Amino acid sequence: EATFSLISGPCQLETLDHARMLAETLSKTCADLGIGFVFKASFDKANRTSLSGKRGVGMDEGLTILSKIREEFGCPVLTDVHDIGQCKPASEAVDVLQIPAFLCRQTDLLLAAGETGAIINVKKGQFLAPWDVQNIVEKVESTGNEKILLTERGASFGYNMLVSDMRSLPIMARTGYPVVFDATHSVQLPGGLGGSTGGQAEFVPPLARAAIAVGCAAVFIETHEEPARSPSDGPNMVALADMPVLLERLKALDSIVKQ
Amino acid sequence: EATFSLISGPCQLETLDHARMLAETLSKTCADLGIGFVFKASFDKANRTSLSGKRGVGMDEGLTILSKIREEFGCPVLTDVHDIGQCKPASEAVDVLQIPAFLCRQTDLLLAAGETGAIINVKKGQFLAPWDVQNIVEKVESTGNEKILLTERGASFGYNMLVSDMRSLPIMARTGYPVVFDATHSVQLPGGLGGSTGGQAEFVPPLARAAIAVGCAAVFIETHEEPARSPSDGPNMVALADMPVLLERLKALDSIVKQ
Amino acid sequence: EATFSLISGPCQLETLDHARMLAETLSKTCADLGIGFVFKASFDKANRTSLSGKRGVGMDEGLTILSKIREEFGCPVLTDVHDIGQCKPASEAVDVLQIPAFLCRQTDLLLAAGETGAIINVKKGQFLAPWDVQNIVEKVESTGNEKILLTERGASFGYNMLVSDMRSLPIMARTGYPVVFDATHSVQLPGGLGGSTGGQAEFVPPLARAAIAVGCAAVFIETHEEPARSPSDGPNMVALADMPVLLERLKALDSIVKQ
Amino acid sequence: EATFSLISGPCQLETLDHARMLAETLSKTCADLGIGFVFKASFDKANRTSLSGKRGVGMDEGLTILSKIREEFGCPVLTDVHDIGQCKPASEAVDVLQIPAFLCRQTDLLLAAGETGAIINVKKGQFLAPWDVQNIVEKVESTGNEKILLTERGASFGYNMLVSDMRSLPIMARTGYPVVFDATHSVQLPGGLGGSTGGQAEFVPPLARAAIAVGCAAVFIETHEEPARSPSDGPNMVALADMPVLLERLKALDSIVKQ
Fold this sequence. Notes:
4 copies of one chain form a homotetramer.
Chain A: E1 5-12, H1 16-33, E2 36-42, H2 59-73, E3 77-80, H3 84-93, E4 96-99, H4 107-115, E5 119-123, H5 133-141, E6 148-152, E7 155-156, E8 162-163, H6 168-173, E9 179-182, E10 188-189, E11 198-199, H7 204-214, E12 218-220, E13 223-224, E14 238-239, H8 243-257
Parallel strand pairs in A: 1-2, 1-12, 2-3, 3-4, 4-5, 5-6, 6-9, 9-12, 13-14
Antiparallel strand pairs in A: 7-8, 10-11
Helix pairs in contact in A: 1-2, 1-8, 2-3, 3-4, 4-5, 7-8
């Protein structure tokens, strides 16, 4: 089994220079450790808790930035799509189209994404049992596209809280596709701050370690040089400066599990 | 406080004649009991569990049928919309645009629906706390549209099961908008049949009675003359022949609660 | 089907005079409305959240008070038992022995209670599915005692919160035994106040109405002339002065459901 | 930080020879790997799902066996107590008294156990938030006993299922006491087999790895040479022959996390 990969970036795109800085730092750290790196950023946050949450730079500017990152750093790039019309243009600028968790059951979006031939990363809905991703997989496969990733990002657990059920990693792996653990969104407290979503950044490292110890193909950890200034998901981000130590430890755990 | 209304119909549109038969029977029953009636049907089921689930008649034919029902029976008509492009045409054919539960956080869809000026019925996501509908309400209100309905349709409770938290009815009512209890989808067993969603039709009447006893503006109960032959949601439908007795009892309970 | 009964009292016994005042007021209200009345009070609170929570008057004094209430007012009396040794003495002073929810799986306690021949009210654990009360029923029945009541008091729903699943009332009724809805403890917020359990008294009336509308044999509603001064469960109690209006409405709903 | 310890044994005591065989095998494996070993067995299963579940050898015979194991193998021994009267005799035969999860709020049992001066292992109830163990800790500490262990064994997640929230390990560790992860009972399916509790033994190794990667003081894994023949918890046991490989891997993960 291969070493795990890191999917990481700033959550929401800010500027080209900011994306460059993060891509450079992260790709170098990953190369030093011998782990794969996928750059992730969103050009639009289409489901912010409240209307006043910042939406992002928009699709045109966003895809331009993302394609430059891909070109300059040679790393695969991932972004999320929210409607059918975004799939084709996004697939020309990036390598991986991500289906947001709330939208994981929207048949037309899955088909439109699958038809681009890009790699499709489906985030399992907070309302979905891990064995039920099989139906989602079949929707994407029906387009002839079998480049699929499946991501655990927490299950609804009462109100305003998610729980990470580590059993879901081996259960989703029964589909035969690589499984990703999203340590950033799993520690969200949905709606927990009233008009925005809170988070528990202190649990990102232990949950990422747990997922690697269970066994997974990739971890998804958003980062920022100053999480408190991130336009979204700040409360559950790992500071960029803390990433090397965390990744080094994950690498060591991964080596043992995949022996 | 006004008597409650019934939102009902066949779930998925089949033919004009089938819609007519249901609209006629239901509108007559409601008129006899002195309760309001809103005809509901979907022209497309965009988030079926599996790809092989029947999708429906499509938007054009569906809206034609729905507008005829509105014209012939003089009752308000409700249908659900799944992307921005459907909002305008649907708003010309029906009175109420419904936002599906999985999509209740999609800002652009809420804004596009709100901008049509139609009544907007937002189903609370299975992953959302009832107090968090306030953020959704503000998204719709930002379009100047204050004709809003909020629907409870069950909260995630472990895997493959929902629970109806009756506290959510008074909590959502704090927004000042009418609250609907969807007794049909609250008894779904999501993914419970593998490739489709199971249901517990036997609990529709007791949960509908409970919601009326708590106090709500409307109940949503899908029906079919032969539930086992319905193209979707059959396992959680009430047979058309059983509706009059159920509604009569709901009317009696409602009268006591709204004294 | 018979009219529902009320199980009510002060939660924790304070003094004989206090118990008398409540028993007199409640039994008169119930007699006026034609509903049954069972006086309930605890002589010991054995599972307070924290050590500093008040425990109560103790078994000897408590049972003396309870037997006087039974004698003076002629109503059945209920109290809870926490270990085997309490079953026999308690069964001589009261009519109904209640098994606390946390203890509903303790075989020896169920057997000891059953063997006294008293009526046994088992509260379903917050961790138990409603269909699993069948195993509990069989433990009690094995003693030859078939005077059993089953009580719903909320199911764990994430952390620090319970949810009342109204489906549990008809599911537990399949055992053939009368089902009680405990509206007081269902609105607890376990551990919600740090060193004690919070509550949401405002939801007692709507949940009690819901349970009656679903159909149940009794409702359990603790009361106090000044809830804020009650030594336990104050945050989820209905004020004594508010009981008549609530009961009158429950009676009206019950009449419709049991027609 | 010290290497983790293993708490293990046959769940329910069968015979002295059987206990000896397990204690010998397990203590040797642990010694070889340099990890601590605590022998665990129950003399009575007081809360079996149904009455027909086997209860065990009883307290007198059980404590005799346990004290012989302690003497012969020199390892600490743990057993669970279910009522006040068992605390004193059990504390004379074993080193650690375990409070079952359903009983973790029973004040008198906690106090009686604490007063023996033995080490007290409290299993967190399936209905309890991890931050609420603070109140339990204070009950035990009030006896002057500060030899406390806290065990995670799964939280209620809908009906008939538990979920292991790995955040609970660092949260409970804030009390300052060692935290144990019970991988055996965390994979129970409570009531899942109708008259008994099912299990998912295949998830014991990945969850144990996850807990070690998060960081904990001990893991609790019940074992049997033939799990299918174990009188209780067979469906969630690891076969004795599979323990060495599992423990070796846990040791390697632990070394990395505690560097």
